[in-house]
Amino acid sequence: MSIKSTMMDYPLTLSTLVERLKTYYPRVEVVSRLPDKTLHRTHYLDIHKRTKRLASALTKRGVKKGEGVATLMWNHYGHLEAYLGVPIMGGVLHTVNLRLSPKDIAYIINHAGDKVLIIDDILLPLYEQFKDDVALDEVIVVPLTGEKVNSEYTDYEDYLKLGDDDFSYPIIDENDAAGMCYTSGTTGRPKGVVYSHRSTVLHAMAEAMVDTLGVSQSDVVTPVVPMFHANAWGLSYTSVLVGAKQALPGPHLDAESLMDLYQSEQVTLSAGVPTIWMAIKTAREAEPNRWKTAPNMRMVVGGAAVPESLFRAFDKFDMTIIQAWGMTETGPLATVGIVKESLSDLDEDAKYACRIKQGLTLPFIDIRIVDEEGVELPWDGKTSGNAELKGPWVTAAYHKNEGAEDSFSEDGWLKTGDVCQIDQEGYVKLTDRTKDLVKSGGEWISSVDLENAIMGHPDVLEAAVIAVAHPKWDERPLAVVVVKEDKQITTDDIRQFLDGKFTKMWLPDAVEVIAEIPKTSTGKFMKMALREQYKNWVWE
Ligand code: AMP
């Protein structure tokens, strides 16, 4: 007779995290910066109470298990309450990226089938731009400015009063949906990634491990990465799991506001894209004695490659950068760039060379690199291949099964669209990207959508948009165009032509007119050749 496990089948659901807040961390603070820059202070006992009231109110108002509740919010206490309150009542927290165009926002709200939207009062002007294109039952407004909420909407504070303190948790399977995020498709529309309770809990536990981000109850955590982008890299849930204080920046993401927050709250762990840290570096260098941050503050930097100069500069400020790589589809954390103990005798330059790699995969994240035919390539630190991932917080599909043919291998690995090398120590190093997108300040721009629009210009014959490195935004779009005979075109012409069709940050910063766009044997634009040609491009 085979021996069977005698362990309990205990579900990994978010209600356990919520209850721990009350039991173990009631007095731990959650600080949020409001639109007027003042600090709102509360603590986990109150967050616990309000979270349960929100869950209860949503239930009473008819939100059913598996239904999406959209949020359009900055990082603050209200968003944290939605992060917890929606999934514990069985709803699916759909964090909407407020930097998308109103057209795309309406598309994804409709695609997810959301019936309720929770929105910051300061974002109502954005809602006004797409409200006629969505069919929401209720719009709940968080009064961050303290101003009275217009009566056509529901005031969030009134909504919480509808809820009961003794909300009892419904039975939720750990594989039930807890949250969803849309990610840019290379072509066509954004695609939805749906996280489960189990994937969210496991991701939080993995992120808390000492050899990953080591988030602990003694940390003060500031996710600068928005709660609407890949779940603020999971840091909200991880902070709740371990009972870490959170200092949330609200809409104020400029260097000065962040440094003020780091100082006033003595933040020990923050996270964001390189653009944020470039700005902080400039501010610190300009006024070296202005701020006093917590000793050996850690900053998780990811979303784009982190230049070595940034590591070196922050080491001088006693702020340690930890690089992380991942994507919306992977929870998002897949690797963390720590230097293994067995490599601790490397000299200083070699250590930097190690830290600028994307790092080691987290436990339970499997990685392989493959060639175009899907044949696995060696981990020799020299061979580049397409990175594919598997793991308990890696998506196995997109919402409504869209995009499956391009995104998953036949044997079920996620194709990341990133090209990397892996060395014998297991360090992953990104060398290129196959996905045809531009990542600017942490947000995606679809080059294909821009090309199609530019080719609609009457004087343009062909257009290719490529990502070119930019000192502030990591990458910006450069449009390379071929004009019709006897025609001329300038950057301003193209920008004016695109104005109104895309959000401002999507518009190409420069337009280069060339005689012919290099093409493959099948007539496709050879973007790699163009990227190579313009790799030393200097932005004016
Ligand atoms: P997102 O889904 O918006 O979080 O974007 C994920 C993508 O960002 C990845 O597939 C990479 O192309 C890029 N990315 C994330 N982290 C890094 C990193 N540390 N270095 C380079 N690129 C990164």
Please give a quick description of this structure.
With 540 residues, the chain is α/β, with parallel strands linked by helices.
Commentary on this structure:
This protein has 540 residues and is of the alpha/beta class. The chain folds into three domains: 14-253, ANL, N-terminal domain (Rossmann fold, 3-Layer(aba) Sandwich); 364-434, Roll (Luciferase, domain 3); 437-533, GMP Synthetase, Chain A, domain 3, CATH 3.30.300.30. It is 28% helix and 25% strand. The protein is built from 16 helices and 25 strands. It has a nine-stranded mixed β-sheet with strand order 2-1-11-10-12-13-14-15-16, with helices on both faces. Strands 7-6-5-3-4-8-9 form a seven-stranded mixed β-sheet, sandwiched between helices. Strand 24, helix 15 (491-498) and strand 25 (510-513) form a beta-alpha-beta unit. Helix 9 packs across helix 10 (274-286). It is globular, with a radius of gyration of 23 Å. The protein starts with 13 loop residues before the first helix and ends in a 7-residue tail after the last helix. The model has no long low-confidence stretch (mean pLDDT 95). The structure holds adenosine monophosphate. Adenosine monophosphate is lined by residues 183, 230, 302-305, 323, 325, 327-328, 332, 358, 416-418, 430, 433, 439, 444. Keywords: Fatty acid metabolism, Ligase, Lipid metabolism. Pfam families: AMP-binding, AMP-binding_C. One of its GO terms (molecular function) is ligase activity. Belongs to the ATP-dependent AMP-binding enzyme family. InterPro entries: AMP-bd_C (IPR025110), AMP-bd_C_sf (IPR045851), AMP-binding_CS (IPR020845), AMP-dep_synth/lig_dom (IPR000873), ANL_N_sf (IPR042099).
